[in-house]
Write a structure and sequence with these properties.
The longest helix is centred in the middle third of the chain and has 29 residues. The strands form 2 sheets. Strands 1-2 form a two-stranded antiparallel ribbon. The protein is built from 5 helices and 4 strands; from the N terminus they run ββαββαααα. The protein has one domain. A hairpin with a 2-residue loop joins strand 1 and strand 2. By secondary structure, the protein is mainly α. 55% of the residues lie in helices and 10% in strands. The two termini are 27 Å apart. Helix 1 packs across helix 3. Pfam families: APH.
């Protein structure tokens, strides 16, 4: 799995993908993590993925291309996994930022906003609630 699969990491040549960048988080694992990563901020099946298609359309395209059959529960589970990883990554980046600068000059609230942990926490809780409601 890529680990950070998103539009910003694709190289386009005319109307086709010519390359994929940013492989430092690639690892052995379930490729559905990448689906969850791409769908992470989608609150419903109608929400856009990469500004191109809805989450439901993206999942159907993935199912058709991969031969898999993801349902709503699968998508939410992998969105939760992706949000968890993003949250852990943000906390690690926050910790590195705090260690690299003079703590007296740092407003932790600004760093928290910069790294998005407030957004990830709320998103993770929302996804878990949706998953439990199924």
């Amino acid at each position: 799995m890529h680990g950070d699969f998103r539009l910003a990491n694709l190289v386009w040549q005319e109307d086709r993908v010519a390359g994929i960048l940013d492989w430092e988080t690639a690892r052995f694992g379930n490729p559905l993590f990448d689906v969850g990563w791409m769908c992470m901020s989608a609150r419903s099946g109608d929400d856009p993925i990469m500004g191109l298609v809805s989450r439901d359309q993206f999942v159907e395209l993935y199912n058709a291309a991969s031969g898999r059959r993801m349902d709503e529960r699968d998508v939410l589970l992998w969105q939760i996994a992706a949000a968890w990883v993003r949250g852990c990554t943000e906390l690690r980046l926050l910790d590195l930022a705090l260690q690299s600068e003079d703590p007296a000059l740092i407003d932790v609230r600004d760093l928290s906003w910069q790294f998005g942990s407030h957004r990830t926490d709320a998103e993770l809780l929302r996804l878990i609630e949706q998953f439990e409601a199924l």
